[in-house]
Specification:
The protein is mostly helical. It has eight helices and four strands, in the order E-E-E-E-H-H-H-H-H-H-H-H. The strands form two sheets. A two-stranded antiparallel ribbon has the order 1-2. A two-stranded antiparallel ribbon has the order 3-4. The structure holds zinc ion (ZN).
Length: 162
């Protein structure tokens, strides 16, 4: 089976495309070669804190980072909890309202969260990019696609414990 890349418009074997179960055809419309180029472009956009570098760094220092995060959380439990609470209040998620909503829509929320994380929706990828200090203008659909690939790679690293 062959497919045409929307980037370079070359038609090539389907194995040369990045797999994505989200899309009905089961692949991203961009070929692996172009996806790689996009990752490099991302590196240029964010040279001081390269996402890929972070992944490598995390893989190498996983135990230390995880324990640091845990220690930070334990030491600052109150601050973290307060921050989360303030954040939800500030964003209009009134505690009572959200509780009521959660109770009424338990299944809906479960499915939504599951889908959001599993398929790595645009909103999910956008959120991850915003956390990496990308501005709204910098976040293009391409970048979102790249971010999706990065999240997938990260998950792969986690499950295969590389
Ligand atoms: Zn291509």
């Amino acid at each position: 089976m062959e497919h045409t890349c929307k980037k370079c418009t070359e038609t090539k074997d389907i194995n040369l495309f990045v797999k994505d179960k989200r899309k009905s055809i089961g692949i991203i419309l961009t070929c692996k070669k172009c996806a790689k180029k996009m990752v490099l472009k991302l590196k240029e956009l964010n040279p001081s804190k390269s996402v890929l570098y972070n992944i490598e760094y995390y893989k190498k220092n996983k135990a230390r980072i995880d324990s640091n995060n845990k220690q930070y959380y334990l030491k600052n439990k109150e601050i973290v909890t307060k921050y989360k609470k303030d954040y939800s209040l500030k964003n209009n998620y009134g505690i009572n309202n959200s509780k009521k909503y959660r109770n009424n829509n338990q299944i809906k929320i479960k499915v939504y969260k599951h889908n959001m994380s599993k398929t790595i929706s645009d909103v999910y990828a956008r959120g991850a990019l915003r956390q990496k200090k990308f501005t709204k203008e910098q976040i293009t659909p391409e970048l979102i696609e790249v971010q999706r690939i990065i999240i997938k790679t990260k998950r792969l690293c986690k499950t295969s414990k590389i």
